[in-house]
Write a structure and sequence with these properties.
Helices cover 37% and strands 26% of the residues. It is α/β, with parallel strands linked by helices. The radius of gyration is 18 Å and the shape is globular. Bound molecules: adenosine-5'-diphosphate (ADP) and magnesium ion.
């Protein structure tokens, strides 16, 4: 049986008076592709950022690979966890290669040769030609930027990939291609993915399990088939009748 990659144990998170997560419990298996769906403001990004300790719980704990992330060495933790967001945050003054090599270079993990080899391998992994490495982010299409963002997150072979609405800004055709690529990648690398989206079709297409969130609580956590066939309540049912989700 696969081990547990990520675990939320009775996590409560507040911003001032606003409680975003309350007694939130979740276990994600190694190699699982978990999609998280819910309305804007329901706490998806907050939950995701707690996995790589960008945010800390007020109560409870978040465990990654058996370790409480609040107590873990933060640099080692970031190396274990790739993070992809919609606005990518590629550094505009750095070439694609330098962007991809950024995190490993911080801890001097790669020498020149390793960097060259790894960047070429990562570009290929995300379906880009090696020449792209010499370009700058402003010279890329939206879909290409997103692929570079994924390559950068995969640098250093993380065990976990956190993705926060990564394909929200690209057109439908590119989005579909990126989804296919990501599914292939995830199977190949056997990486654990936690993927936030507000598109129900994307959630059921990608997830081995789908977590439906409603203002800080779990409305349903199940396989896509189960969620479609047996929605836990009206809230989940509503999701599908709205077509596009939220
Ligand atoms: N740094 C912050 N300070 C205060 N409130 C915040 C902060 N970050 C998020 N929030 C609030 O917490 C709630 C959940 O936010 P978030 O996790 O970003 O939601 P989602 O990603 O599901 O759209 C929202 O009401 C948001 O306005
Ligand atoms: Mg968000």
């Amino acid at each position: 049986m696969a081990g547990e990659a990520i675990c939320f144990r009775h996590v409560t998170k507040k911003y001032g008076d606003l409680t975003v997560l309350e007694d939130f419990c979740l276990s994600v298996n190694q190699g699982e592709f978990l999609t998280v769906i819910g309305r804007s403001g329901c706490g998806k990004t907050t939950a995701l950022k707690m996995v790589n300790a960008l945010l800390k719980p007020d109560l409870g704990e978040v465990i990654v690979a058996g370790q409480n992330v609040s107590k873990a060495d933060q640099i080692a933790l970031r190396r274990k966890i790739g993070y992809v967001i919609q606005s990518i945050g590629l550094f505009p003054h750095m070439s694609v290669s330098k962007n991809i090599a950024y995190v490993p270079s911080l801890s001097r993990q790669w020498n020149k040769e390793t960097e060259k080899r790894e960047v070429a391998r990562l570009l290929e992994t995300v379906g880009l030609k090696p020449e792209i490495g010499e370009r700058y982010p402003s010279e890329l299409s939206g879909g290409q930027k997103q692929r570079v963002g994924i390559a950068r997150a995969l640098a250093g072979n993380p065990e976990i990939l956190l993705m926060d609405e990564p394909f929200g800004a690209v057109d439908a055709i590119t989005r579909r291609a990126l989804q296919d690529e990501l599914l292939r990648l995830q199977k190949e690398l056997k990486i654990t993915v936690m993927f936030v989206t507000h598109d129900i079709r994307e959630a059921v297409r990608l997830g081995t399990r789908v977590l439906v969130m409603e203002t800080g609580r779990i409305a349903q956590l199940d396989t896509p088939e189960k969620i479609i066939r047996q929605p836990a309540d009206d809230f989940v049912k509503q999701l599908f009748s709205d077509g596009d989700g939220f």
